[in-house]
Amino acid sequence: xxxxxxxxxxxxxxxxxxxxxxxxxxxxxxLKAFLDGGLFNIIVFRENGEIIGHAIWHETCTDEHRRGDPxxxxxxxxxxxxxxxxxxxxxxxxLWLMKEHRGKGYGKQFFDFFEKxxxxxxxxxxVYYAFDPAAVGLCRKRGYREAYGxxxxxxxxxxxxxxxxxxxxxxxxxKLEI
Length: 178
Description:
Elements: E1 2-5, H1 9-19, H2 27-36, E2 41-47, E3 50-61, E4 64-66, E5 69-70, H3 73-83, E6 88-97, H4 106-120, E7 125-130, H5 133-141, E8 145-153, E9 159-168
Parallel strand pairs: 6-7
Antiparallel strand pairs: 1-2, 2-3, 3-6, 4-5, 7-9, 8-9
């Protein structure tokens, strides 16, 4: 299994269709526009030449979710709790692995790769909003600092708790306290 930054969008959209992601009207076009516009970046998990998972990430800050897209008050307050003031960082926006490949340690391998990759690119911190219990457990195990969860409507209208995690990548960056 290997991690590759970027992917042909036609191949990626076929994979997304297979896993049922971005199926709502207009979602795939919006994702493509974000990728083409440099607002989102993609890393795919490949095994035997096939995409088996993906991660979407973007540069961000405490004031804006994406360029020109202000954060809501609750989210901004959580981030200010982590950083103590305005800060630029990387947000791991989405992490997905096909069900038949889960439980093989790929999540741990991804976080090892992602954290090193972001550190090498010069970023000070990673923030990740996790819903899935396995992702929550992995973040806790890896030493991510945790803020209280945000309860919001999930994709099918059910209420879900989203846990907000942060990992400081550089020792010389601002100390994260909660």
